[in-house]
Amino acid sequence: MTHLKWCVIGTDPRMEKLSIFLKELNVEVLYLQTKAWSYQVERDLLTFQPDILVLPIQPLQIVTDTVSLDYFKTVKKCFVGKLSPEWTRFFEASELDVEPYLENEQFIWLNAKLTAEGFIAAYYLEEHEMVAGKHFMISGFGRVAKLLATQLKRMDAHPTIVVRSSIQLAEAQAMGYETRKLEQGITCDQSIFVNTIPAKWLTKDFSSLLTSCQRFYDIASSPGCSALDETHSDIYKLYTSLPGQFLEKDAAKLLFKCVTESVKQLKGGTLC
């Protein structure tokens, strides 16, 4: 049995914390704090020759001419977040053992819980007001929206679910939430609006939300929901990585558990 060498890449604070947690297990770790796949990254990988590679949630920008399998020769397992079309083509053409941790159901739900709690932290930072008694409109009714609505209700706030889907409307109503249809010209009545829909739906047809809300928080995946040319920086607040921004230690622990449990199944290596 050989000791596995880890390389962790990314600028999200949780990635640095992940490398620290691994080092505490006496694992040999190379942490590269970068948003790009560069020639320097390639040189570092050739020198270090990692067995396990952990890529960040947001895809690395490729600033080299191409990505070669030469830099993955020693990699037994590669953990990935979101992939750009270039990275998708690269991994599909390779025979690498690739595991998208964003498709791990336990990781998804617990990360959604951290995102909901992270929003509360962002709200306090921006508003300097208590949550209790406030009105919130939440677009979408996926994992994050459900957990956030539950959290707000527990804090004596008044969440309203705003969706297009008749199925989600019915589901939210059945769970006891006030609901509204997400449609053109909808207004917010000076509520706090929170978007959880990972699509660019905020067009001019829905700009009435920005003029009628107290604040518009976009906590969906990067690059957010806005398709408007105007920034509306005083109203529109983009928070696309709440766990990494406000709960980096818990977010890193979650990722640490996800990747280390998977690596335990590898043959011919030990975690530390």
How far is the N terminus from the C terminus?
Answer: 10 Å
Order of helices and strands: EEHEEHEEEHEHEHEHEEHEEHHE
Oligomer: single chain
Here the CATH topology of the largest domain equals Rossmann fold
User: Which of globular, elongated, flat, extended, rod-shaped describes the shape?
Assistant: elongated
CATH superfamily of the largest domain: NAD(P)-binding Rossmann-like Domain
Main pleated sheet: 6 strands, parallel
Q: How do the strands line up in the largest sheet?
A: 11-10-9-12-13-14
Broad structural category? alpha/beta
Count of extended strands = 15
**Top-tier CATH class of the largest domain:** Alpha Beta
Q: Tell me what portion of residues adopts beta-strand conformation.
A: 15-25%
What does the radius of gyration come to?
A: 21 Å
